[in-house]
Write a structure and sequence with these properties.
Length: 673
Amino acid sequence: MTERQKDRPWLMRTYAGHSTAEASNELYRRNLAKGQTGLSVAFDLPTQTGYDPDHVLARGEVGRVGVPVSHLGDMRRLFQDIPLEQMNTSMTINATAMWLLALYQVVAEEQGLDEEAIAKLSGTTQNDIVKEYLSRGTHVFPPGPSLRLTTDMITYTVNHIPKWNPINICSYHLQEAGATPVQEISYAMSTAIAVLDAVFASGQVPDERRGDVVARISFFVNAGVRFVEEMCKMRAFGRIWDKITRERYGIEDPKQRRFRYGVQVNSLGLTEAQPENNVQRIVLEMLAVTLSKDARARAVQLPAWNEALGLPRPWDQQWSLRIQQVLAHESDLLEYEDIFAGSHVIEAKVDALVTDCLAEIDRIQEMGGAMAAVESGYLKSQLVSAHAERRARIESGEEKIVGVNCFEGTEPNPLTADLDTAIMTVDPANEERVVRSLHDWRDNRDEVRAQDALSALKKAAAGDTNLFPATLECARAGVTTGEWAWALRDVFGEFRAPTGVSGAPVAVTAETGSPLAVVREKVARTAADLGGGRLRLLVGKPGLDGHSNGAEQIAVRARDAGFEVVYQGIRLTPEQIVAAAVAEDVHCVGLSILSGSHAALVPDVLERLRRAGAPDLPVIVGGIIPSADAAELRRAGVAAVFTPKDFGITEIIGRIVDEIRTANKLDPLEVPA
């Protein structure tokens, strides 16, 4: 090849944060010293959903899946000795994105940055609320007010922090919830249209600056193991974005129309069984978004090999960073122009994706756009259905997963010989320390200034002025995350998103002799033995974990097996779950928790059931639960624990029936196949 300058590598990030601001700060500085070129902040669930660590719903969740940031003091400690003017910081935050960006700006000011330097801050706030309603569940406010918060943030950053990406429209979580490539592209693009339409309708941006707004819209995309299809998906994304921004918004400058995206490769496909296979999955998924120069990601973060087991350790995160560094610095990937240019195979696949996506985008626009399609439940039911179909393909063996439904024999794994040290654990006493620190903060702030700032925020929310200046004053005045969110809840209200379960079609056939037919017979005979109509299963999600995919799939399959299913969606307290179980007179309670809060929340549910006079009601638990914790839960009285290795949903439903029979002292039931 002719000599040409090697391309600059993408930004390399590790999604990280845990326990406390101090512990996370130490981790960030260590990762930067290892060659990481950008920061990616994981916040804990209370921070993401607008609760202070001392709120009842925050119990067991503080510092589990990210860092708790309750106020300006936490943000100061999080970025201590990290010069923000030199950083490119990605913050995975949505409902409370405005609040966290305000805290970040104030910390930058405290580091000595003047207005001109603040304007040069670079990074991204995720801030895509639509996918929260559909897949991740950290929404707080209804769609209208949520869109207003996003609009106000975009217009503020375009005018004051122009290098900042104020929104990261996420198709990542849609794929995790079961989206096909067509759904992933179409729903993300429909969200982008809804956001841009709202920004331009707000009157806060003059027409001549429309291009500046479009240029700051970024995307956060998933890459699965079908890496040829995934690479074509990225090319299709770019073409559709170019078409929409040119034709719908009249953006003439091709640089402003460029599809700018970062990637976290797929966590949905990571397996608990033979977890060493996850390393090659991660590498293949990374190739999907790096091989094609014309569709190469601007930033990449990789999960760790052991994410299906629990919280990765620093060494596991380093391994993922080294995967990126080997590709960028040892291979010749960055020395060539686009290696797929002119491929008729790739072009045909991209053309097909573009055609199908444009048709689906038009369908959503006819419904009134993405927000209307969220509120009607259309988008959610489509995702639940697609996910159910995928699970059915895996269970039938049509879709193969190495080590799970084929090639299951394995040598002893030295990586997981001691499972309890193969992941990181968060000290249970950490939550108490964080809560104590929060109370000290409240005791020592200027209370009058804090309350005045909250009053001004409510007043702004009740009107139509941009909410960012009032939010900045809240940050400076020592207001807490929960107080900021509650002030807006008082004005905007809260939102419970549709679950999509009732509208999902049957995904698994139940012909005579099929596994589902066998389980249906068990359900019917057990219901008859108990003499109380249909068997009733309550599926509950205690705490703040909004990843509802597993709970939804259990609910759908239980319904198809003949259960009456009680599923009220995410974010319930143990008290609410027990009250529903008693009121609905259910035969079993199934709890789904992926955030690691099972150790605190499950025993609470068990104790409340005992106090409510239902000590024998079987409780089953599913989630990412280490083996030692699973044993502890069973000792506490849990009937069964299911983890990602238990991929057969029909078999799980059969086990639930068995536990109901055991709890009711019925003989074991063997239904002939």
